[in-house]
Amino acid sequence: MQAGNELIRLDVKAVMPTSGGAAVFLGDEAKVMVIYIDHHVGMAIEMAMKREPRERPQTHDLINSILAGLGARVDRVVIHHFESGVYYARLFVVAENELHERKILEIDARPSDSFALAIAHDAPVYMVKPVWDGAEDVSPLLKSMDSGKGGGARGARRPED
Fold first, then answer.
1. Which residue of 12, 61, 133, 141 is 20 to 30 Å from 25, comparing CA positions?
2. How many CB atoms are closer than 10 A to CB 63?
3. Which of 15, 50, 31, 28 lies closest to 161, judged by CA?
């Protein structure tokens, strides 16, 4: 990731199933963009947003348990690159335990996996400004789905959440 890139803080606004997986709507007050992901990760993000208990631990739950056991937590996610239709992210994990004062790990990760982990840790999601500026604004689409015209966006967070 290049130093000096301005970061835009994004909220996961909604997760919606698609014919090929799921759509994750991310944005701020001015703009919303979409990233298409695998169906199973979409379900994991949606469950994390709703804080739904799982019958059996899933992969993201396992990772969260390992992080907790190591005294670590997800600090933030940064989507830093877009190329050939693919977004690239870095997952920042902070470990603070009796063995080390503080250690920060920067891990290459798929944005979708990072979202599921960030939501579970109440960690922020950021995007570098050049990538954000290049993303298509789909705010009207999300608004139409929220109003019932497009079937509704499942998992949408309300501002008070």
1. 61
2. 18
3. 50
Greatest CA separation found in the chain? 54
Nearest partner of 138 among 157, 153, 155, judged by Cα: 153
Q: What is the pLDDT of residues 3-58, one digit of tens each?
A: 557 999 999 999 999 999 999 999 999 999 999 999 989 988 988 898 877 788 88
> Which residues, at least 6 apart from 89, have a Cβ–Cβ distance to it below 8 Å?
77, 78, 79, 80, 108, 109, 110, 111, 114
Q: What's the pTM value of the predicted model, to 2 decimals? A: 0.83
Q: Which two tokens stand for residue 93?
A: 């994990």
CATH code at 7-146: 3.10.690.10
